[in-house]
Amino acid sequence: MTHEGFRRGVRIGIDVGKARIGVARSDRDGLLATPIETVARAEDGSDLAAIRQHIAELEPVEIIVGLPLSLSGDRTPSTEDAVGFAEAIARLGTPVRLVDERLSTVTAHQAMRGVGRSQKKSRGVIDQVAAVIILQHALDTERGRGIAPGEPVLTDEGA
Predict the structure, then answer these.
(1) CA 124, chain centre distance (Å)
(2) How many Å apart are CA 27 and CA 61, to the nearest integer?
(3) Is 18 helix (H, G, I), strand (E, B) or coil?
(4) The whole model's pTM is what?
Protein backbone atom coordinates (compact mmCIF):
# COMPACT_ATOMS: atom_id res chain seq x y z
CA MET A 1 0.00 0.00 0.00
CA THR A 2 1.48 3.34 -0.99
CA HIS A 3 0.84 6.77 0.47
CA GLU A 4 -1.58 8.75 -1.69
CA GLY A 5 1.08 11.30 -2.74
CA PHE A 6 3.93 8.81 -3.18
CA ARG A 7 5.17 8.15 -6.70
CA ARG A 8 5.94 4.48 -7.41
CA GLY A 9 9.13 3.42 -9.12
CA VAL A 10 12.80 2.69 -8.51
CA ARG A 11 15.03 5.54 -7.42
CA ILE A 12 18.82 5.69 -7.45
CA GLY A 13 20.64 7.44 -4.60
CA ILE A 14 24.08 8.95 -5.07
CA ASP A 15 26.64 10.19 -2.55
CA VAL A 16 29.22 12.25 -4.47
CA GLY A 17 32.65 12.38 -2.86
CA LYS A 18 36.00 13.69 -4.01
CA ALA A 19 37.48 10.20 -4.45
CA ARG A 20 34.45 7.89 -4.60
CA ILE A 21 30.73 7.89 -5.42
CA GLY A 22 28.36 5.72 -3.43
CA VAL A 23 25.38 4.30 -5.31
CA ALA A 24 22.17 2.88 -3.83
CA ARG A 25 18.75 1.93 -5.16
CA SER A 26 15.22 1.56 -3.89
CA ASP A 27 12.64 -1.09 -4.57
CA ARG A 28 9.72 -0.21 -6.89
CA ASP A 29 7.46 0.62 -3.94
CA GLY A 30 10.01 3.05 -2.51
CA LEU A 31 10.13 1.35 0.87
CA LEU A 32 13.77 0.38 1.22
CA ALA A 33 17.10 1.69 -0.03
CA THR A 34 19.89 -0.85 -0.56
CA PRO A 35 23.54 -0.41 -1.61
CA ILE A 36 24.69 -1.11 -5.18
CA GLU A 37 28.36 -0.17 -5.49
CA THR A 38 31.12 2.34 -4.94
CA VAL A 39 32.42 4.02 -8.11
CA ALA A 40 35.84 5.68 -8.27
CA ARG A 41 35.76 9.34 -9.33
CA ALA A 42 37.44 9.68 -12.70
CA GLU A 43 38.51 12.52 -14.96
CA ASP A 44 37.79 10.37 -18.03
CA GLY A 45 34.03 10.19 -17.40
CA SER A 46 34.00 6.50 -16.48
CA ASP A 47 32.26 7.41 -13.20
CA LEU A 48 29.38 8.96 -15.15
CA ALA A 49 29.37 5.94 -17.49
CA ALA A 50 28.91 3.65 -14.47
CA ILE A 51 25.92 5.72 -13.35
CA ARG A 52 24.53 5.64 -16.91
CA GLN A 53 24.73 1.82 -16.82
CA HIS A 54 22.71 1.69 -13.58
CA ILE A 55 20.12 4.03 -15.12
CA ALA A 56 19.83 1.75 -18.17
CA GLU A 57 19.44 -1.37 -16.00
CA LEU A 58 17.09 0.02 -13.34
CA GLU A 59 15.08 2.58 -15.35
CA PRO A 60 14.58 4.80 -12.28
CA VAL A 61 11.82 7.39 -12.02
CA GLU A 62 14.42 9.75 -10.57
CA ILE A 63 17.88 10.01 -9.12
CA ILE A 64 18.52 11.47 -5.67
CA VAL A 65 21.91 13.14 -5.26
CA GLY A 66 23.10 14.18 -1.82
CA LEU A 67 23.74 17.90 -1.46
CA PRO A 68 26.64 18.41 0.96
CA LEU A 69 26.17 21.63 2.91
CA SER A 70 28.07 22.90 5.92
CA LEU A 71 26.37 22.35 9.28
CA SER A 72 25.18 25.98 9.09
CA GLY A 73 23.57 25.25 5.70
CA ASP A 74 26.12 27.15 3.62
CA ARG A 75 27.47 25.92 0.29
CA THR A 76 31.04 24.57 0.17
CA PRO A 77 33.42 23.42 -2.58
CA SER A 78 31.93 19.92 -2.06
CA THR A 79 28.47 21.39 -2.68
CA GLU A 80 29.57 22.78 -6.04
CA ASP A 81 31.19 19.44 -6.97
CA ALA A 82 28.00 17.51 -6.15
CA VAL A 83 25.82 20.01 -8.04
CA GLY A 84 28.08 19.75 -11.10
CA PHE A 85 27.90 15.95 -11.02
CA ALA A 86 24.11 16.06 -10.54
CA GLU A 87 23.81 18.36 -13.57
CA ALA A 88 25.88 15.92 -15.65
CA ILE A 89 23.57 13.06 -14.57
CA ALA A 90 20.47 15.16 -15.36
CA ARG A 91 21.74 15.64 -18.92
CA LEU A 92 21.42 11.85 -19.34
CA GLY A 93 17.64 12.33 -19.32
CA THR A 94 16.41 11.00 -15.96
CA PRO A 95 15.03 13.56 -13.48
CA VAL A 96 17.51 14.39 -10.70
CA ARG A 97 16.78 15.91 -7.30
CA LEU A 98 19.29 17.34 -4.81
CA VAL A 99 18.58 16.43 -1.19
CA ASP A 100 20.33 17.86 1.87
CA GLU A 101 22.77 15.22 3.07
CA ARG A 102 24.22 16.89 6.15
CA LEU A 103 25.60 14.27 8.53
CA SER A 104 24.92 11.32 6.18
CA THR A 105 28.63 10.34 6.09
CA VAL A 106 28.91 10.76 9.87
CA THR A 107 25.80 8.58 10.28
CA ALA A 108 27.28 6.02 7.87
CA HIS A 109 30.53 5.85 9.87
CA GLN A 110 28.53 5.42 13.09
CA ALA A 111 26.51 2.62 11.50
CA MET A 112 29.65 0.82 10.37
CA ARG A 113 31.25 1.15 13.83
CA GLY A 114 27.98 -0.15 15.27
CA VAL A 115 28.45 -3.42 13.37
CA GLY A 116 32.13 -3.65 14.32
CA ARG A 117 33.75 -2.31 11.13
CA SER A 118 36.65 0.09 11.54
CA GLN A 119 36.90 3.22 9.41
CA LYS A 120 39.77 1.63 7.46
CA LYS A 121 37.82 -1.58 6.81
CA SER A 122 34.71 0.42 5.88
CA ARG A 123 36.39 2.62 3.26
CA GLY A 124 35.12 0.53 0.32
CA VAL A 125 31.49 0.56 1.43
CA ILE A 126 31.08 3.77 3.45
CA ASP A 127 30.03 5.73 0.36
CA GLN A 128 27.39 3.10 -0.43
CA VAL A 129 26.09 3.34 3.13
CA ALA A 130 25.95 7.14 2.84
CA ALA A 131 24.03 6.77 -0.47
CA VAL A 132 21.57 4.41 1.27
CA ILE A 133 21.08 6.92 4.10
CA ILE A 134 20.51 9.80 1.63
CA LEU A 135 18.05 7.77 -0.46
CA GLN A 136 16.19 6.31 2.52
CA HIS A 137 15.77 9.79 3.99
CA ALA A 138 14.38 11.02 0.65
CA LEU A 139 11.97 8.06 0.43
CA ASP A 140 10.78 8.54 4.01
CA THR A 141 10.36 12.29 3.47
CA GLU A 142 8.26 11.80 0.34
CA ARG A 143 6.18 9.08 1.95
CA GLY A 144 5.58 11.20 5.05
CA ARG A 145 4.86 14.52 3.33
CA GLY A 146 3.44 13.33 0.02
CA ILE A 147 5.75 15.61 -1.96
CA ALA A 148 9.00 14.96 -3.80
CA PRO A 149 12.06 15.65 -1.62
CA GLY A 150 14.71 18.28 -2.22
CA GLU A 151 15.07 20.45 -5.30
CA PRO A 152 15.02 19.41 -8.96
CA VAL A 153 18.18 19.79 -11.01
CA LEU A 154 17.49 21.71 -14.19
CA THR A 155 19.58 21.17 -17.28
CA ASP A 156 20.35 23.79 -19.93
CA GLU A 157 17.30 22.54 -21.77
CA GLY A 158 15.17 23.38 -18.72
CA ALA A 159 14.25 19.75 -18.15
Answers:
(1) 16
(2) 11
(3) coil
(4) 0.85
CB 38 within 8 A of CB 88: no
Determine the Cα–Cα distance for residues 124 and 122; give it in Å rounded to an integer.
6
Q: Select from 64, 128, 61 the least CA-distant residue to 101.
A: 64
3-state class percentages of the chain: helix first, strand second, coil last, to nearest 5: 40, 25, 35
| Better-predicted residue by pLDDT, 101 or 3 | 101
- Which tens digits make up the pLDDT trace of 81-112? 999 999 999 999 999 999 988 655 556 556 65
Place 19 in a pLDDT band, splitting at 50, 70 and 90.
Answer: very high
Q: At what angle do helices 104-114 and 119-145 cross, to 10 degrees?
A: 120
Sign of CA dihedral 8, 11, 94, 63: positive
Amino acid at 90: A
Domains (ranges, CATH) in the chain?
Answer: 11-152 (3.30.420.140)
In contact, 89 and 63? CB cutoff 8 Å: yes
Cβ atoms < 10 Å from Cβ of 133: 24
CA–CA separation, 43 and 32 (whole Å): 32
